[in-house]
User: Fold this.
Amino acid sequence: MILASILELLPAGLTMLSLGTVFAIILLIASIKLKVVVDEKVEQVHEALPNIDCGACGFAGCASYAKAVVADPELLGKCAPGGPETSEAVARILNLQVSGGGVELRPIVHCRSHTVDRTYYATYAGIETCTAANAQANVQACKFGCLGYGDCTSACKFDALHIVDGLATVDYEKCTGCTACSKVCPRFLIEMVPFGHENMMTVACSSKENGRSTRSMCKTGCIGCGLCTKKTELFTLANNLARLDYEGYQPSEETQAAIDKCPTGVIVFRGKSAPTPRPAG
Assistant:
């Protein structure tokens, strides 16, 4: 009886074994034919990158950038978090020379106003994000000021941004220049500027209101008086707002005179060892 049962099952077993063998061969052929050949240089470049997928390079992540830079070496130097060291490492892998290091870009928040410096029309009780608050009218009197709910701090992967007394503040020791903060600010207050010096002078304001209106809303805003433009040509005035030529900026007696004469103290230094701004107003 047992032998008969085995003999009855034998054809089915042989059939299953044959089918299994056929499928195994098909899968083996498919794996060989469809195998994705990975460029060794792409793998090496990927390993040299920070692998934080911040998107500062303009690609979805480090893997995408690695493929792109191997295909087009003109993209070398796009990794802001990696900085010059990463660019040099990638250049060595691609047998290229890095020309010049360039000036690193770092964010500057064009606002100096803390909570105590601002005029508020009402208490905001909505979703605590800058994007949500910015969609509401009259959250604060100045429509150009920092909202202080920290969308930029959430976007930063390096813990380089913090909200200090209602104002987004950059920790330049930790900042890598990844641009994430500048992309999420709904009021476009954060600008990536060339840091040709450890500390950069800036007009910490974005208001385009006239001087009288600005004074009524904020103690630290630019009132468009133009005194800075009379001290140095590096400052220009447009739409009631002074701006500094960052690329041309060099510390001098003239630039220091501009900061000393500013009536509201809106011209300040930003950087790793920036001096504490003088009291506002």
